[in-house]
């Protein structure tokens, strides 16, 4: 059997599933195609030609390397293919976007044949994905007096790869399609339970919204061939929950433009919109593809004669429609006036925020990557030629207010800024290139990240990145055939690229399925760091972390940089005293509830939450920062006291050392380097040279939220409110209710303690509650299943040493076994305690799920429709979120507890040690409090 016949068999299988041939990334298969192309009478020659031309992946795949080499042979006359002329070979090279293709173009441009060199140079001038080795070749040739190299460098210095592209259209006609009412989670566009197929773009595209929706979109395209379909979140925000590159890819696949005729299923330039705009991290992903994200503002609050909002019986503002965007509505986007118009040209709303100079550049270039690499290439060319960089790209917006202090995020951005005006202090609103210190890639988007790295021709991690980690947590629950096929391949790629990986491709250390956010929280050893991670919950208790799409993660890994505006900040402080029977998770919920009560609107959305956490160590502080993704915040920053930060760094050091002891260190000594950086930071704090990060007294905030701890007197539950008459209020995190609201009568079908929101303390709470309840009642019986998944193996190991794991084992009816991991997802649950493998488990929703229609009470973060639990035909699934004690007790009772039952169950358990930071804590070395 040849690789080609295997490929034909795969094609037949895919055909039966309604799919086209899968794009080829294997160089050995391309070599077979070339052999058959060269053999004129070969019966497979015609198909081999089509596969070679139209179905071979570009970038740094092995397939791209073999293809580029053969095209070079054709150009030099060493091989002859009637259907591929030298001119056509150059065109094919121009669409391969870097790596082997650029190497070939440089070979030809710097070669001896003048005609070939001239043609190669013209193609080379259109390319932007050049790396250090490519640039060094050009620089060396220029210094040696090569005129072609000089010509190419002059073109790069002028940024002709960008300036010669056509401008975006003055007018873009769209036809609307309402994807859903209310906030649209990216799970609707790319369901988590289909994560295994994300790297197979055509297959994954079939999971977007529904088959019926896909048919409706196709019908709209046939009815309006001159228009682009605009996907809309009516009465809501588009793309909440995560950046989800696969979601944007799906929207582009169904509604966008084809990027290249020679690269299948890669589309760009989707148009998406929402009544309340686009979620910030999802909007970044839209920019990656050169797309457009509009804030429609088509529903507004109805006001009385005094200008005050009119409220309904539930206390929510009554909305009225300014203009209709019902499915099939034809609209126009005037990109010059930056207005949205109706079909007749009437102005509807200002959409200038979607057409900033930088965003327009992304649209013109077809992606934000092309602009990022283009700027880098232009700078290199100008420096090599000894000239000033010509002003081609829109200058970065630099906002500076004399005499105004800096918020914490402003300080971090100023410290890590690259290429900004020397000596200029930058405030919120500035566009900044920043150095990225820590990068995280998770396993359900990791394959896409590796594809992005291949597409941008990257082969090794940037030396400026302090540390990067590839997790295995999102696929930890079930080691099924999909995981077995994808995860080892991903780990091998990332390990070779230079990341610390959860699995060792050589099998020399135990597979670590630790939750990625927990690992990143440990390996972040500088409160001034910038972290980029392939997940919306990339929120750290040290530094500032941004959840990002798989492509932005790839860009950070390849370049060590990211580009973004400095967000405005909302300051969160605390007053009062935390009651002993409250868990810190309740403080988190109360922050959301009190903020909404104070301001009416969500002032956190799209901004940095600067939380003055003070006395909480990194693990519990992370509970707050993690939740801020659900508050729709851009990111969050913890302001800690010096002693607290030092203790958190010591904990981080010990955990990094465990990774080293387990054999996870790489040749570059990345993990030891992080320990050394932690030691350096501790020394700076102790000496007073550089205290813990804190804002200036004269910093300016968008808003200030004060959380009153005194009024938090009972546990709180975030409710998806699935039956709210206003669909825009369903599945949001804005409905926060005290446990007494449910009158000890809310039936609970399954409890889940796990996800990135819990830490070692939560596991100990479970054990102590079981002991309490047995002592009080003589035994413990579960009236609903309780699934417990520790976030990390370190926690399991420590619980075993301290005796708590034995208690959990005593009450469990199932305990994970790494020697025999589950091969299939659990579909039915008994009323027992399940000790699951460390990882995301139910929170991710891609492998394990509750039974359809269940009411789940969980410590996780996701209450989106269909995430943890799907709807049944007769009732909707509900994913309510609460603290660990509430979840455990509810699973035992089979219902939500009364406040009296709750207090009895947690008696003697020290849930949280938290007190608001004082103005000047005793013994603090920082002068900033």
TrEMBL record:
EC number: 4.2.1.3, 4.2.1.99
Record-linked Gene3D superfamilies: Aconitase, Domain 2, Aconitase, domain 3, Aconitase, domain 4, Aconitate B, HEAT-like domain
KW Oxidoreductase (keyword) present: no
Top EC class for this record: lyase
One of the record's GO molecular function terms: aconitate hydratase activity
A family per Pfam: Aconitase_2_N
Record keywords, A-Z: Iron, Iron-sulfur, Lyase, Metal-binding
Stretches assigned to the Aconitase B HEAT-like domain: 6-162
Tagged with keyword Metal-binding: yes
Tree of life domain: Bacteria
Domain Aconitase B swivel: 176-406
Domain Aconitase/3-isopropylmalate dehydratase large subunit alpha/beta/alpha: from-to ranges: 410-894
NCBIfam families found in the cross-reference section: PRK09238.1
Stored PANTHER family: ACONITATE HYDRATASE B
Protein name: Bifunctional aconitate hydratase 2/2-methylisocitrate dehydratase
Taxonomic lineage from the root: Bacteria, Pseudomonadati, Pseudomonadota, Alphaproteobacteria, Rhodobacterales
């Amino acid at each position: 059997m040849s690789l080609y016949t295997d490929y034909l068999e795969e094609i037949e299988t895919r055909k039966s599933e309604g799919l086209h041939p899968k794009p080829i990334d294997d160089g050995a298969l391309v070599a077979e195609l070339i052999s058959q192309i060269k053999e004129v009478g070969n019966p497979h020659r015609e198909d081999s030609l089509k596969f070679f031309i139209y179905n071979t992946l570009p970038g740094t795949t092995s397939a791209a390397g073999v293809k580029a080499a053969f095209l070079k042979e054709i150009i030099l006359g060493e091989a002859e293919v009637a259907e591929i002329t030298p001119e056509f070979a150059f065109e094919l090279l121009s669409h391969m976007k870097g790596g082997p293709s650029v190497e070939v173009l440089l070979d030809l441009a710097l070669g001896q044949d003048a005609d070939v060199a001239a043609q190669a140079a013209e193609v080379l001038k259109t390319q932007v994905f050049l790396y250090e080795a490519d640039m060094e070749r050009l620089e060396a040739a220029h210094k040696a007096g090569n005129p072609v190299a000089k010509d190419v460098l002059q073109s790069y210095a002028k940024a002709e790869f960008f300036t010669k592209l056509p401008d975006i259209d003055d007018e873009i006609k769209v036809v609307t399609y309402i994807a859903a009412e209310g906030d649209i989670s990216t799970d609707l566009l790319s369901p988590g339970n289909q994560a295994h197929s994300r790297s197979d773009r055509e297959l994954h595209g079939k999971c977007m919204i529904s088959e019926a929706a896909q048919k409706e979109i196709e019908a709209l395209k046939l009815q309006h061939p001159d228009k682009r379909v605009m996907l809309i979140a009516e009465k809501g925000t588009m793309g909440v929950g995560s950046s989800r590159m696969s979601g944007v890819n799906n929207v582009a696949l169904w509604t966008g433009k084809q990027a290249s005729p020679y690269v299948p299923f890669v589309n760009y330039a989707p148009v998406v919109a929402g009544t309340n705009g686009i979620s910030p991290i999802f909007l970044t992903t839209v920019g990656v593809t050169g797309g457009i994200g509009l804030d429609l503002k088509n529903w507004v609050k109805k006001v009385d004669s005094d200008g005050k909002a009119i409220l309904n019986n539930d206390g929510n503002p009554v909305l009225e429609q300014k203009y209709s965007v019902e499915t099939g509505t034809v609209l126009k986007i005037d990109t010059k006036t930056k207005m949205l118009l109706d079909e007749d040209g009437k102005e509807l709303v200002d959409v200038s925020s979607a057409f900033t100079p930088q965003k327009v550049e992304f649209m013109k270039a077809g992606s934000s990557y092309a602009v990022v690499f283009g700027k880098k290439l232009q700078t290199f060319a100008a420096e090599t030629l000894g000239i000033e960089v010509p002003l081609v790209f829109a200058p970065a917006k630099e906002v500076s207010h004399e005499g105004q202090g800096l918020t914490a995020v402003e300080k971090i951005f100023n410290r890590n800024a690259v290429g900004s005006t020397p000596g200029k202090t930058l405030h919120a609103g500035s566009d900044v290139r920043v150095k990225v210190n820590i990068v995280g890639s998770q396993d359900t988007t990791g394959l896409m990240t590796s594809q992005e790295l291949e597409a941008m021709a990257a082969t090794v991690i940037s030396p400026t990145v302090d540390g990067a980690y590839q997790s295995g947590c999102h696929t930890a629950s079930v080691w099924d055939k999909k995981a077995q096929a994808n995860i080892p391949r991903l780990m091998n790629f990332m390990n070779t690229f230079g990341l610390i990986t959860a699995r060792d491709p050589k099998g020399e250390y135990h597979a670590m399925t630790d939750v990625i956010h927990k690992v990143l929280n440990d390996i972040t050893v500088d409160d001034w760091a910038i972290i980029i991670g392939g997940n919306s919950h990339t929120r750290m208790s040290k530094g500032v972390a941004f959840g990002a799409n798989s492509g932005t993660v790839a860009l950070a890994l390849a370049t060590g940089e990211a580009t973004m505006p400095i967000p405005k900040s909302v300051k969160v402080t605390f007053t009062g005293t935390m009651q002993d029977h409250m868990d810190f998770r309740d403080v988190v919920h109360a922050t959301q509830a009190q903020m909404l009560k104070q301001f009416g609107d969500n002032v956190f959305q799209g901004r940095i939450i600067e939380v003055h956490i003070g006395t909480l160590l990194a693990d519990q502080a992370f509970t707050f920062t993690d939740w801020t993704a659900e508050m729709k915040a851009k990111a969050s920053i913890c302001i800690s006291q010096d002693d607290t930060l030092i203790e958190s760094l010591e904990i981080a050091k010990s955990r990094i050392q465990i990774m080293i002891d387990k054999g996870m260190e790489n040749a570059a000594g990345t993990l030891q380097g992080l320990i050394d950086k932690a030691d350096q930071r501790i020394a700076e704090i102790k000496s007073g040279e550089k205290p813990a990060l804190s804002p200036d007294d004269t910093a300016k905030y968008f808003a200030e939220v004060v959380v009153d701890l005194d009024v938090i007197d009972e546990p709180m539950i975030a409710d998806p409110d699935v039956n709210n008459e206003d669909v825009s209020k369903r599945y949001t995190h804005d409905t926060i209710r005290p446990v007494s609201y449910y009158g000890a009568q809310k039936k609970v079908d399954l409890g889940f303690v796990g996800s990135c929101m819990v830490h070692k303390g939560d596991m100990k709470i479970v054990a102590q509650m079981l002991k309490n309840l047995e002592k009080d009642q003589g035994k413990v019986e579960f009236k609903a299943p309780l699934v417990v998944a520790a976030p990390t193996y370190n926690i399991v190991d420590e619980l075993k040493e301290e005796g708590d794991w034995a208690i959990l084992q005593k009450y469990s009816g199932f305990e994970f076994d790494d020697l025999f991991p589950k091969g299939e997802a659990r579909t039915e649950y008994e009323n027992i305690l399940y000790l699951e493998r460390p990882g995301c488990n139910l929170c991710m929703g891609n492998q394990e799920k509750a039974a359809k229609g269940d009411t789940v009470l969980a410590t996780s973060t996701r209450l989106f429709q269909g995430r943890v639990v799907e709807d049944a035909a007769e009732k909707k699934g509900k994913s309510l979120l609460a603290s660990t004690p509430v979840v455990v007790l509810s699973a035992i009772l089979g219902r939500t507890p009364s406040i009296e039952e709750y207090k009895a169950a947690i008696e003697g358990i020290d849930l949280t040690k938290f007190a608001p930071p004082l103005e000047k804590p005793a013994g603090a070395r920082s002068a900033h409090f």
